Amino acid sequence: MDRRKVLKGAGLAAAAATVASPAVAQTNPEIRWRMSSAYPKSLDTLYGAGEMIAKRVAAATDNKFQIQVFAAGEIVGALQTLDATQNGTIECSYTLSSFFIGKDPTFMFETSVPWGMNVRQHNAWMHYGGGLDLVREFMKDYNVYPIPAGQTGAQMGGWFRKEIKSIEDLKGLKMRIAGMGGQIMQKLGVVPQVLAAGDIYPALERGTLDAVEFSGPHDDEKLGFVKVAQYYYYPGFWEGGAQPSLYVNMGKWNELPAHYKAVLEAACAEANAMCVAKYDAQNADAIRRLVGQGVQLRPFPRDVMEQSYKEAFKLYGELAASNAKFKKVFDSWSAFREKELTWFRIAELPFDFFVNQQQGQR
Amino acid sequence: MDRRKVLKGAGLAAAAATVASPAVAQTNPEIRWRMSSAYPKSLDTLYGAGEMIAKRVAAATDNKFQIQVFAAGEIVGALQTLDATQNGTIECSYTLSSFFIGKDPTFMFETSVPWGMNVRQHNAWMHYGGGLDLVREFMKDYNVYPIPAGQTGAQMGGWFRKEIKSIEDLKGLKMRIAGMGGQIMQKLGVVPQVLAAGDIYPALERGTLDAVEFSGPHDDEKLGFVKVAQYYYYPGFWEGGAQPSLYVNMGKWNELPAHYKAVLEAACAEANAMCVAKYDAQNADAIRRLVGQGVQLRPFPRDVMEQSYKEAFKLYGELAASNAKFKKVFDSWSAFREKELTWFRIAELPFDFFVNQQQGQR
């Protein structure tokens, strides 16, 4: 290993660069950005994906392009990341488009669509089915250049204080669930609640809250819900795979030298892939521990699955009828999903189904 | 858009750089590598993944680090990529570890294990389960630093001239199938054949070959097998997801400046993710066209699936008993797989199963 030789060479280069600094500064300008993450440091995988991008960008540019990562609330809160990026308060943010469906439901497509595509299908649509182009066209109105930069995989359906045996048991249930998943669950009788993360546990304990949807086992475990709500449902059909993105202020993006753009895009693509790989490893460990702590794993009852599926696609139809931007993306998404589902029924899922059965038998 | 301003700035920098060239040359040295792909240009997705890496590396280093990609046979053939990288004939190659299981079956783990992990599970093991560290330790003996750099997803089980209704129909069947999949199919009565790609079609047409395994719909379609062998089986259980890698000569890797290493690793991670996204889009289109051309899609009969599964794990047990290197990687792989399968049975697969059923009903 020639580490010392490399370091020595770098030292000489640095000394020479001092003399010739104007030229070096022009070709590889020193750039400092701030990234506001929509996540607290405690959500180590999602917060960490932002850090991974910053580290890779610095390493790949010999520390010339540095991005400092701030946790949610340090500069702006999670729900202000779009506005702050749009108006240039910050150069970029690591955030989740589905936070902004209140501005326009079209924001949903970049993150995940309830009962939509899985991770592989979503990536195929984004990069080779025209999805990302449509998302970027839509986001131009917000002065933001989005780059896919993370992935959770399919999430869990949440923690319930009582067992849910049929759709009847959802009627009047007070559940902390946000976004479009909340809208769909509301059609099934659930009363969606808005609570900050820190308020969920005491509300569940007191029984003023009946259920909570948060993330997957790795993230959920830290919040200790198992002690106050033992039934842990799956799948989290509203997020068959949630994809956070790096939102970059359009002006800042355009000013970036072409090779820094290339570095940033590759670093985000890497974080996108590594984030879900990390979750897949971490969730597998966490679910084992949770089962050891007495969690009762339950699939959602069949009628909950079927009714939520119907309500989801009914909602998309309504949104497409009233919102031309939504319709444009939905039409592409919908056609692509149909063909992906057909293909996955052939090679991918029969492989998974069979292995799953064989493993279940042992 | 400040494109002109950026270009103007770059022009000034280039002029200044001419004066100060020694300093610039040290910090961002001009490096030229050759990458020998194990694939012909006609396999556009796999060959293209190597090109994607080269383009991204050039773009991210302002064209200072350039990698020229050569198709299989232009410098060395697919099966010589390891030797040529090991002895430094070429700096790097884009290749598939499973080509080299004749040297040591331990090479299998980096590509795919028959009836092993799917793409997500494999990535989780490689990057967050210690898999890549083990693979790199093993590859040190070959003077190669491997970087995961592509992915096919689950492949098809191949083209058969006659319908396979049970394991009995495999007895004596002459099938073009390589590697460990061939070893397992041999246990089921198949007689594996070695044929170059160009010889397959005429052999199938004449009936001197009964079946052929190649890749997935997008790649297979080009070879026109549907005209001479209409039964197209799934899943290709020997490759639930094949991962090509960039093999880098260890000396060349060590000489690379740290920021070029960072660029190359990010570019490979990006290609790894984009390759499977591209296949997932392309295969979905190709399978539709193939069905339109009269292909008969068939799942492998249950007894073929079950017996091949048994034979596969029996083989791994035998290899682990006689090969300490194999055992070391297998033990890690096997334990990780168990926990991944448990986790995927909870959130991910029930989501896929249900969506699959709903789509099938329409």
CATH topology of chain A: D-Maltodextrin-Binding Protein, domain 2
Query: Which structural class fits the helix and strand makeup of chain A?
Result: alpha/beta
Poorly predicted runs of 5 or more residues of chain A: 1-25
Give me the Rg of chain A, rounded: 22 Å
Largest sheet properties of chain A:
6 strands, mixed
Distance between the termini of chain A: 46 Å
Q: What is the beta-strand fraction of chain A?
A: 5-15%
Q: Name the chain pair whose interface involves the most residues.
A: A-B, 102 and 102 residues
Mean pLDDT of chain A: 92
Q: Name the CATH superfamily classification of chain A.
A: Bacterial extracellular solute-binding protein, family 7
CATH architecture of chain A: 3-Layer(aba) Sandwich
- Strand order across the biggest sheet of chain A? 7-6-8-5-9-11
Order of helices and strands of chain A: HHEHEHEHHHEEEHEHEHEEHHEHHH
- What spatial form of chain A do the alpha-carbon principal axes imply? globular
The CATH class label of chain A is Alpha Beta
Instruction: Tally the structural domains of chain A.
Output: 1
Treating each run of at least 4 consecutive H or I residues as one helix, how many helices of chain A? 15
Number of strands of chain A: 11
- Oligomerization category of the chains in this entry: homodimer
As a percent range, the share of helical residues of chain A equals 40-55%
